[in-house]
Amino acid sequence: MAKNRFLIQKRLIFLTFVFFTNAIFSETVKLPIYGKGNYIAFSDLKSIFPELNTKLRKTTAVGSIYTPQGSINFRLGASFYTLDEKIFKIPKAVVKKGEEVYLPIDLVESIFINLISYDVRYRFKEDELLVLVSTDPIPKKNINVKAIVIDPGHGGKDPGTSDPQGIKEKDISLAVAKYVYLYLRKYYPEIRVLMTRKTDVFIELEDRSKEANKLLLDTRDVIFLSLHCNASLSEKASGFEVYYLSQSPSTESARETALIENKYFGKPISNNVAAIQSQLLSSVTQRRSKKFAESVANQYEKGLSPSILSRGVKKADFSVLRGSLMPAVLVEMGYLTNLEESKLLQNKDFQKKIARSVIKGIHEYANAKD
What we know:
Number of strands: 18
Low-confidence stretches: 1-24, 273-278
Mean pLDDT: 83
C-alpha cells in the first residue's frame, strides 16, 4: 500500500442525532476509510466502541482484538484471521503504519458481528463507514459503588430449570449477565466488574462467595447481583421477582423458589463457607439489599412491562446470597415453564432490555443508599 494512502489526515468524527419513533436517540458516526476503500483505523473504531482492546507482539507480528464477548487473532501482512479456533480468509491483510493498526473492512464486519454484543447498524460507503449506534437510555452519571459482582446462576453440570424444549436456565442467565457486564464496561468503565463465570462451567457456591468477598475486602464497596429463571408446575405462572436474603421467606412460594435454587450442591460446604452462612445477619446489609431489590424491581417493571409483569420484591433464604457479605439480590427474570415468557427470555433484544433495566436499577439504588 502506497505510503501516502496512510498520510491522509484523519477527519474528525462527525456525530449527528437521529430521532426514532420510539423516542430513543441514536448516533450516526462517520469514520474515514483509507486505502481506496479497504481499511479502517483501529483507533477510530475504538473511539465509538471503547470495549474493544488490542494486543500486538512485535517479535511475531501476531495480534488480537478482543472484548468480553470473544477474541479475533491476526498476523500483520497475512490475509486471514482466526475466531473460535477457525481460520477465515479475507481479501486484504491487517497492516500497521507508525503506531496505527489498519483493519480491512471484512475484519471490521466480523468485529461487529462477533465481538460487539449489542445491535450495531452500519454501512460501508466509498470513502467512509457509517455506524448507527443506539444510545440506550442508561443513566450516564457515576454509580456510587466501586465494584459489582454479576453472578449468572447455575452452569456446567448444574443446568438449573428448563423449558419444555430443553432451553436451560444456565444459558439464559449467562447470556443476560454478559450483556450486563458489557453495558457496565461501556457506560461505567471506572467501576470494577466481576463475573462469577463467563462460560458454561460449574462454579461452587464457596468459590462464588470467595471471589465476591475478596473483592469486598479490596474495595469496601461492592454489590452482588445473581441472575436466574423461575419455574413452576403450572404453565400459567408468570412474571419476574427480585429477592433479598432473609431467614423468613415472605411467602410459601418464595420458600419453594429458594429450595429449587438451592437444591444443587457439588462438594460439601467447607467450614469457612458454613461459618459465613451461619453468622448473624447484618441489618444494615439487609436494609441495603432490600433497597437494592426494590430499585431493580422498579426499573425492571418500567423497562419490561407489560411483556413480563412484576410479582414484587420478596425475601427468602438463598444460599448464593447467604454466602456473600454485601448488599445482594437475586433476580428471577421470568418463568421458563411459561412458553410465552420462555420465548421472550431467549430473545437477544429482550435480554438486552433486561440488562439495561437492571443497570438502571443499580444506578437508582447506588445513588440513594444510606
